[in-house]
Design a protein that fits this description.
This protein is an alpha+beta fold and 445 residues long. It has 2 domains: 374 residues, no CATH class; 60 residues, no CATH class. Helices cover 22% and strands 26% of the residues. Strands 2, 3, 5, 10, 12, 14, 16, 17 and 19 form a 9-stranded mixed β-sheet that branches. A 4-stranded mixed β-sheet has the order 1-6-20-15. A 4-stranded antiparallel β-sheet has the order 4-9-8-7. Helix 3 crosses helix 4.
Length: 445
Amino acid sequence: MKIIRVLLSCLLTGVILFFGVKPALAFCGFYVAKADTSLYNQASQVIIARDEDRTVLTMSNDYQGEVKDFAMVVPVPVILKEEQVHVGEAKILQRLDDFSAPRLVEYFDDDPCEIRAYEDGIAFNSAPQAAPSLRQKKADADLGVTVEEQFSVGEYDIVILSAKESGGLETWLRQNDYQIPEGAKELLQPYIRQNLKFFVAKVNLEEYDSNGFEKLRPISMAYESPKFMLPIRLGMMNANGDQDLIVYLLSPKGQVELSNYRTVKVPSDSEVPEFVKEEFKDFYTAMFQNSYIRENKKVAFLEYAWDMGSCDPCSAEPLNREELKEAGVFWLDSTPSNPRFFGNSNVFITRLHVRYSRDRFPEDLKFQQTSDRDLFQGRYVIRHPYTGDITCDAGKEYQQSVRDRQEREAKTLAKLTGWNIESIRDRIKFVKAEPVEWWENLWNR
């Protein structure tokens, strides 16, 4: 039996991959670097634009392997028609990632001997497929499976299914060349009880080859439903170890949070040693894992919450109106509310980072919108000591304060990452400080 190898990032967003999966181990200041999705193994990206009961869900396909072997099944709340499905470009996910990624900023100390005002800035259309034969319809009906819709969009051939019971759905999938892993029947049943439908997609090879695509593009779907959730349990069937999911939630109201798991902020606004600038990837990876363990692996982390009309500091420009539409935002006003910026202030972005495994996240993700428009970003600060000649008595105090600051930075880094404090100290270029005698400032000389 031919085993199909799949690595699909939207697996983590409620996509069921019925194949043998072998995942690929996937404010003021001057902006320096960002912690983007390339940091995380098996990182999946999803965009959810939602207002009231209307939702546009975009799933990225980080698929490794032959496109002819690609297929996915996604639980969806309604029967989708062809016009409700869109194939976009991966660059829109990259834009959102660039804009919202945790970032590193740096400051440079002034000459302590100069009088200055020092400000601590916080700092898819192919030809439609032939209709199934009457014999096929009867066979499907015998299994309790109904093909509700069937169409092609871009490089994808899509079928929308409904099912009465999980055994019939499992049989239908097997008969249609989907290899189902053990345990699928039990995991399918809760979605059938909720009356969810199933979005089944395969690659139209002729369309894919004729357009010269190098990789599969993201799929968007628009629908209305009171359910504001993202199924992830089915995606765990083939998962080995922890998986990372980045969800970009776009709302006209404010922050979005999970209602069935805690949402906590990543540690932020911490001052760290200078060498972290060259090792920001290692730093953020270790810091996130340390926080994940500390929270008992049962929370979602807020990495960014911001009005799309601005950024400070800007790791990337806010998305313009056309990009926001591509991301699924359907409520844009006729004119930007703030012409100074590329974006539109009635779009608020929440970036949630969920690292999960089978035993820690037994439920699908359920979201709720809030009116909280407080701004937050995962932000880490480097302060460079002044390196010029120091020609005044105040310079001694400054040097001692810098040395004390460097020690605090070392302890902060050790606490954030779990790295050995002595190893951190060995890498810091401590400022040499002459001791300030107790009487030197007595008479303000």
